[in-house]
Amino acid sequence: MVDSASLQFVSPYAFEAMQKVDVARLAALSDPELRLLLPCLVRMALCAPADQSNAWAQDKKLILRLLSGVEAVNSIVALLSVDFHALEQDARKEQQLRHKAGGSNSESILVSQLQHGLTLEFEHSDPLRRLRLALSELLAIMNKVADSNGEFFLKSSELFESPVYLEEVADVLCILQAELPSLLPIIEVAEALLHVRNGEWFMCLLVANVPDSFSEVCRGLIKNGERQDEESVGGRRRTEALRQLCQMNPSQALNIRAMVVEECHLPGLGVALTLDYKPDMADEAVSPLVSYVSGLLLGTNGKVRTWFSMFIRNGQQRKRESSSVLWQMRRQLLLELVAILPRSRSTHVPNDTDMDSESSSGYSGLREEHVVKASALLRLYCALMGIAGLRPTDEEAEQLLQLMTSRPPATPAGVRFVSLSFCKLLAFPTLVSTPEQEQLMVMWLSWMIKEEEYFESAAGVSASFGEMLLLVAMYFHSNQLSAIIELVCSTLGMKIAIKPSSLSKMKTIFTQEIFTEQVVTAHAVRVAVTNNLSANITGFLPIHCIYQLLRSRAFTKHKVSIKDWIFRQLCETTTPLHTQLLPLIDVYINSILTPASKTNPEATNQPITEQEILNVFQGLAGVGKARSQYTITTQLLILYYILSYEEALLANTKTLALMQKKPKSYSPALMDQIPIKHLIRQAQGLQQELGGLHSALLRLLATNYPHLCMVEDWISEEEVTGTLPLLRKMLLTSSSSFQNVLSGGPGLLRILEHLTLLSAGDLIPYAEALTSSMGLLLEDGVSRRIIQTVNKLWMVLNTVMPRKLWVMTVNALQPLVKLLRQQRYTQNDLMVDPLIVLRCDSRVFRCPPLMDITLHMLNGYLLASKAYLNAHLKETAEFERQAQTVSNLGLSGQPDTPEVTREELKNALLAAQDSAAVQILLEVCLPPPQEDVQSAPGIPMRKQVGDTGAGKGAQGEREAEGGLLSDLREVQCLICCLLHQMFIADPNIAKLVHFQGYPQALLPLTVAGIPSMHICLDFIPELLAQPQLEKQIFAIQLLSHLCTQYALPKSLSVARLAISVMGTLLTVLTRAKRFAFFMPTLPCLVSFCKAFPPLFDDVMSLLIQVGQVSAADVTTKARDIDPLIARLQYLGQKPQEIRLSESKYSLRKRSAEELGRADPDVQLCYQIEATFMDIISSSTQAL
User: Fold this and answer.
1) Exposed, middle or buried: residue 283 (CB in 10 Å: 0-12, 13-18, 19+)?
2) Beta-carbon count within 10 A of 439 CB
3) Looking at the record, which segments are called Disordered (predicted)?
4) Distances (CA, A) of 1068 to 281, 1063, 1064
5) pLDDT averaged over 10-residue windows placed end to end, the chain, 1183 residues
6) Surface-to-core class of residue 585, CB atoms within 10 Å of its CB (0-12 exposed, 13-18 middle, 19+ buried)
């Protein structure tokens, strides 16, 4: 028996020559090397080749010449002379016999009973018998492997262990496999050879003689291998065999290692191949071993990570063995670590004088070319200890600490190394075990603090380790240990299980020796802001430190002003937005409004001043040619700050009132100068870069400025394409063009059309000129197209500067008397009293384009007024309640005014405001007296309302005769659209307006023009129950139009109720009131019957009752009238027999001659008869 280590293996040179069939290289091999390859070379020389080229013929001659001097060739030639077909048949028969016998070796077809040992038989046998002996032994091993179910065994075989015959046995084995490949698949043969001594040597020879099978054999061995190879003898033998194969063919070693990782088998083999790997070009930065192990533990494949971690854990449980692959790996890593340490670095801890000396041997710096490698080694040891559970030896821990406390050069890689070292100290504080090591760490941390600014400036990086030190110190002070763990894991780039209890020693060092809270706050405020801060800058920045200090209220506690730092950082921002900016603003606002403690209510931060805010928006409103020097990101962040501040101020009113503290809010004048809508419009196009800022601004806007979030504005907003810059020279520069509006109509129109080509932002400089001359558009003779173009431009400007535009427009459209007095309204005036908008020049009410603008402003200011009053109520409620409580101390019988009263008063004011606006608008819909005088009683009301008279001069000429397509009709449509929106937004407004009532002449317009009027059906029963006769009459008249417009089941039920109420009132009303009630309501019965024919009987009954009462009153006066009751009853019973034409003629004639001077009861009788005739007429027409 011989050790395989003493055997000669095939060299990489020889294997490559065989693989490429390089005859020249083969000729250069020594005799011992050539001896191992004879089986393949002899077969190559004797077998008929597939390649018939002259080149191969010459190579074959060289091979024959090479073999001619080797004695062992004759024995191999003799082996190839055997009848392999017969041999294969016998072998298959023996396999069948073995299966039947259950694997017993009692009988053999290949080999008869052996009289001597297997070795002696092999020595004395002829070539055929040698083949039979080897084949029988190999098949027996293969069968046993197949039946072993994966359990490893080592078979003692005299044939494979005798050192004298190893080469002859190898020849036989190679010939057998080459000639009987179907019987002896090379993968199964290789698997069987693992179970005999010297198996890896035989395997290498077998593969060397069939070089194309290298990858196939390796993959088969890996697939059949163990998940943890060092756990068993079989795994170690398999690893060693594959290692020898890869040493024979080193160019494929990395591919074999990739197979190991892919299959998650034999982790030790992967490490061993990495240890054996010698790259042609050595990478100075990171060694192959560090790269390989780091890739396994820090890669994205969790299965691979778990598999290799198990290899580390299991390897530590065994005794330390020099032959163990794991210990070889650890030794190599330690050697690499020591190699990059500064030469003079030792465990000696110098005193203070040594520390000040730059030539101190204990503190020599890490060389620049070693920094990247040192960082990679640190991360690898973090992964080995944190993920794989490696327990470092004392030697490893000491050398690691020496490396971590090294001082790198001031480069970006050096900054990264210091950050990693610091986080490794936090993650594995057990590395610091002795007082000397603890002192070394403290001095290194002190060096970090001292050198942080130099490193940041010299390395040219924004995220330095100084911010991380500050952040960790703040976390320790606020006891946020989980945040420290998250920070460490994020910096190291791996998830490590760190127990918070393990950080107690580090916490003591940080909070008591290095960073007291006062030092932290004083240092933080001096840290420079990050220039051009954006999401592209990763790592831990000053903003993270300031955010944590604000959260812990450290600045207010130690009276350190942070306002200037925050403002500077907000001014140094760009897109894409950094995720920490919005939380920073929120926590800053909270620190302004909420004191750090109740005992010290003055301990708050200072807000950003109004002047600083104004500077940010300077030049943005388009007043001058100056452009703002701040980015859109800064402006949006300041806007977010202001809106959030105001919202938080209202939300904390109660808390602030209890502390008798009232922070100052920003003035309305400041808010008026900020182009909020313009900024929001720009933010809309930058949503991807701004993250959640756009949605946060919309939320604040909807809460505090609902008039800037009207739905119609969002729907109508469209991007207007720009035009050539040269066009700007032709644009409007002053209002002089409007002064000659009549004479220069075409020129003005051309200028306005050019303006429509501009984008909304470019129109801002011309807003004042457009609005200030709007009053001139009301003069007679102005082209309608000019007014419509101004309307279009106004709507575009409304998308970017609505609030300022509204104020300028309201002031421009004032009546001439107010203009002469130069009375100017402000934004606050209009929010307090939105009805100022409707106190404009009366000519606006008959100019549809300008009326459209007026209605838009009215709707906006009504919404603004609601928000203003709500904010005012919240702002003053708590403080007034506190003041009332103080003033009432000691006074009895003076209870506080309940809060619900204030809320009710506010709601009442808003309701009065809305209803007044609706009533004014309804009044605008009425034609003026000069338009109505020509309306005859017989003309339908819808035409009367739409009619226009000739008394308006040039204004009347613009309206079409006949009335429907007139300015009045267009204004009515615009008003109806607005009223519809108001009724839908708050149905209570509709109820209030109809309880107040309005002219009956407008009912056809409102019912037909306002689609939401059907909601009146809900409260008409309540209106009918009112005691005022006027409201009851209005309810019935409204119901008659609603029934015609909405013939619904609900309308039918309300109509039945109305008829019932009319019948009840007939019995209770006095004679004068009866006349006043029934004269206007009786014609409504016609509409009821027309909409709902089933009501005919009820209406007839009511009319007869009214007629009886009226006729009775007439008879008491001894007045002789027609037998009304009999005629009514007859009409009710036989309506089809009535000749309508004669009745109508006689009725009209009687009315014209007698109605004016008739008694009221007589008039009522005639009205009843006329109602009868109208009902019958409408019913017969329907038939």
Assistant:
1) exposed
2) 12
3) 933-958
4) 116, 9, 7
5) 68 88 85 86 78 76 79 83 85 80 60 66 79 85 80 78 83 88 89 88 91 92 85 86 91 91 90 84 73 90 90 80 80 90 52 39 66 90 89 89 86 85 86 83 80 67 67 76 84 84 80 73 74 80 79 76 84 86 87 71 77 78 51 87 85 70 77 80 80 84 76 58 43 47 66 81 83 84 86 86 87 79 81 89 90 91 85 68 51 50 82 90 83 38 34 40 69 92 90 91 92 91 91 92 91 92 89 87 90 88 86 67 58 52 43 55 81 79 56
6) buried
Residue 396, φ and ψ in degrees, nearest 5: -65, -45
List of residues 6+ apart from 1061 with CB closer than 8 A? 1024, 1032
Residue tagged 């019913």 (tokens): 1179
Task: Kindly state the DSSP code that residue 725 receives in the 8-state scheme.
Answer: G
- Number of other CB atoms surrounding residue 605 within 10 Å: 20
Query: CA-to-CA distance for 1111 and 1093, rounded, in angstroms?
Result: 27
In whole angstroms, what is the distance from residue 98 CA to residue 648 CA? 90
Cα–Cα distance list, 1142 to 428, 1145, 1147, 1169 (Å): 113, 5, 8, 14
| Euclidean distance between CA atoms 538 and 91, whole angstroms | 70
Task: Answer whether 828's CB lies under 8 Å from 670's CB.
Answer: no
Cα separation of 672 and 804, whole Å? 7
CA 784 – CA 778 distance, rounded (Å): 10
Taking the C-alpha atoms of residue 995 and residue 1034, their distance in angstroms, rounded to an integer, is: 9
DSSP states along 949-1010: -STTTHHHHTSPTTSTTSHHHHHHHHHHHHHHHHHHH-HHHHHHHHHH---GGGHHHHHHH-
